[in-house]
Amino acid sequence: MSGLTKSIRRIRGAGAVTLLGLAVSASLPASAKEAEDVSAAGAAKQSLAIVRTAKAERSTISADLVFTGDIQAQSQVNVAFRNNGKIATRLVEVGDHVTADQVLAKLDPQEQRANLNNAQAALTSAEALLTQAKVNFKRQEMLLSSGYTTRPSYDDAEQQLRTTLASVESAKAALGTAQEQFSYTDLKSGVDGIVLSRSFEVGQVVQAGQTVLTMAEDGPRDAVFNVFEAVLATPPESKQIDVTLQADPKVRTVGTVREISPSVDAASGTVRVKVGLKDTPAAMTLGAIVVGTGKFRPQTAIVLPWSSLYRWENAPAVWVRDPASGKVAPRNVTIDRYSPNTIALSGGVEPGEEVVIAGIQFLRPGQTVSVAEKIGR
Is the confidence at residue 2, as pLDDT, over 70? Predict the structure, then answer.
């Protein structure tokens, strides 16, 4: 009986130990699984790319268009001799201010002087013949009235008189031409202005009409700018441009767009724009560098930071995040204009969409991201 009791106790003790072991063994896997799940969740969270996003909203923008150019004369004159010849004297240098009747250079007048002397001699001869023809006609007129000459002799005298009169008029015209040609040996501009360039030296032989001097005529001035063709697609709101001297910003004036070149310069890809200045300060001399400022028409656009700009499929793009799934995808956009710190989009992103503005270098299409901070614009 006592042996049976001891056996039962041993069985009960073994069962208790077994139950305790089962309980411990059951509890250990649950704790490990829980810890493993927490660790996996933490690792998954750490694997998410952290970005910053902004909500796309339309806003009114009115940016300034700033460009540089120089001061030029509205009218430039090419000066040339009217005769062929060899240059004997040069009386001006580049930068000189000259008047309309000032002699700028002289040709060797030997040929023109000879022509002038010949014309004067021809006129003297014609006048002598005219005097003789007048005396003969007067004699024939008196003889005809007395009946001592014939009518044909009188008519011949009259015809001779008319012929010599015509010869005198022709000689006078030839003399005037010779005198004019002689005066053309002195080079004059015909306008007041400043000599911009010259292309001749003493002793050089020039042809009639060959440009030897270029002058900027006194009068209104232009601020001339070379702007990119794309700017003209959306021109400034007003044709009035503020013009500032680059060397001294205190020197300012205003001008109006006077001329836009119809063609694009093949070398630079720009279009020349001339702005006529209302008043020209003394400091804005020819060739002075100036800065022009115009204002674009106010318009609405989606404005984003530069940091959101990405390149996708060889075109500008941004990353757009789907709030429901948390996934991002690249989206090609159309850029309206660039600013120092922002870009203005005219298409590709709709108002209300969530755009990634920081962390785009870590993204790939379809990636789930975590937002560190949302910035409402």
Answer: no
Residue keyed to tokens 């580049």: 94
What tokens does 316 get?
Answer: 């500008």
Q: Give how far the C-alpha of residue 148 lies from the chain's centroid of Cα atoms, to the nearest Å.
A: 90
Secondary structure string (H, E, C) spanning the chain: CHHHHHHHHHHHHHHHHHHHHHHHHHHHHHHHHHHHHHHHHHHHHHHCEEEEEEECCEEEECCEEEEEEEEEECCEEEEECCCCEEEEEECCCCCCEECCCCEEEEECCHHHHHHHHHHHHHHHHHHHHHHHHHHHHHHHHHHHHHCCCCHHHHHHHHHHHHHHHHHHHHHHHHHHHHHHHHHCCEEECCCCEEEEEECCCCCCEECCCCEEEEEEECCCEEEEEEEEHHHHHCCECCCEEEEEECCCCCCEEEEEEEEECCCCCCCCCEEEEEEEECCCCCCCCCCCEEEEEEEECCEEEEEEEHHHCEEECCEEEEEEECCCCCEEEEEECEEEEECCCEEEEEECCCCCCEEEEECHHHCCCCCEEEEEEEEEC
The predicted structure's pLDDT at residue 47: 58
CB 86 within 8 A of CB 173: no
CB 354 within 8 A of CB 328: no
Q: What tokens does 49 get?
A: 């790319």
- For 207, residues 6+ apart whose C-beta sits below 8 A from its C-beta are 84
Residue 65's pLDDT is 78
pLDDT digits (tens, 9 = 90+) for 133-150: 999 999 988 888 888 888
Q: What is the pTM of this model?
A: 0.56
C-alpha 221/C-alpha 287 separation (Å) is 11
